[in-house]
Please model this.
Amino acid sequence: MNAQSSHQIFWAPLAWISGAWQRGVCLEVDGAGRFTCISSGIHTAPEHATVLRGPVLPGMVNAHSHAFQRAFAGLSERRDSDADDFWSWRDHMYGVALRITPAQMRAVAAQLYVEMLQGGYTQVCEFHYLHHAQDGAQYDDPATMAWAVADGAADAGLGLTVLPVLYERAGFDKPALRDDQRRFAGTPDFVADLQRSVEHAGRALVNAGVSIHSLRAASPHSIHALMLRVETHDIPVHIHVAEQMQEVRDGLSHTGQRPIEWLCNNVAMDARWQLVHATHAEAAEIDAVGRTGAGVVICPSTEGNLGDGIADLPAWLGAGVPIAIGSDSHVCRNAMEELRWLEYGQRLKLQRRNVCASPATGQSATAARLFDAALNAGARAAGQTQWGLCRTARADMVVLDGQSPGLLGMPDTHLLDAAMFACDNSAVRDVYVGGRQVIVNGQHLQQTPIEAQFESAMQSLWQGH
Ligand SMILES: [Zn+2]
Model:
């Protein structure tokens, strides 16, 4: 979808600007879909302004997604043997990965991305490793599956950061991929070339970075080769790391170092880097990451669903590490619920309340601290230099429904707290991406055809399984 072609003016009764609610906010947007001017204290809407009908938040970035896994949400919640863990879930997940076609990929992605918009996200980072055809052969256009994801994002009108993944082996001591991983195969050159072709296509709302599946799935030699290829590019670099204790044990036995420790000692990490999960990290590792400028992407609902563990969030925040959120396997597509579980995991673990508040630095509201942390870190993870309700940022706006049950009658000062901790359902009413409205009264403008395509894709994918 293209941005609106002409200058627009919006007016909001309340808007979240620089970490606080401002009243009577006028937001001007240029023909390229970016904010040119934002001013507050304007208590009546100017003539010709579009009135936003509720408190306005900036769009959240979903910093970690595998869109095809949306087709699997809810289908792995049974246990037929004594043990069930991440690795048995992964074997099931590969079944979908092997079957899904480009057309089904587009349909699943479009549905997922509509749900993300309804959940308050306006940008997603797609950790994309489903590169090849079902038999493992390269498509004539190697970016075929990436375009399927990008087409789904365009159908929904969500911003997209494509992160082609380097995935080349089945484990530290398994130099080849398993047969059921054949669609994932990528060399450093394949990944760097895919990044360039997505970037150079110049699609609206689409940019690209690179990623490395994990230390077990890529050799040190290939990681260094990829980093040489993108050395001079200011693009995001994502990697799954320390999600599971088995991965930490494998790292220790094969390299003598824990995975995050190995990264800090062997790779010149910088602010482009995003460590996805980083669940199992010791204090020295957290300090070392803090010195690199790298960020961490936590995916609370998926980490809970997979039994990964709980990250040491107070230590990460204390080390000044940017913390973004991701929905990863998509059992949850609601940004506020993801942030709620980020805090609840800590409360359950530490038996304390408001763990992420920081009264010592004047941040006593847990919701405000978490929301702004994830907003700023998510923008970096998506390679966005300007983000939020500020001049030159893309004009993304999430309008809340002040009449939704959790917000009804709430004093302005506590609206964000209530949106995060007291709403059962998303309180999102309207959503704009690049100045263009995509969600109206909670519904996507193309919701009916997108749902029909998704339902049909699900029926084909699961028929007989
Ligand atoms: Zn992941």
Remarks:
- The radius of gyration is 21 Å.
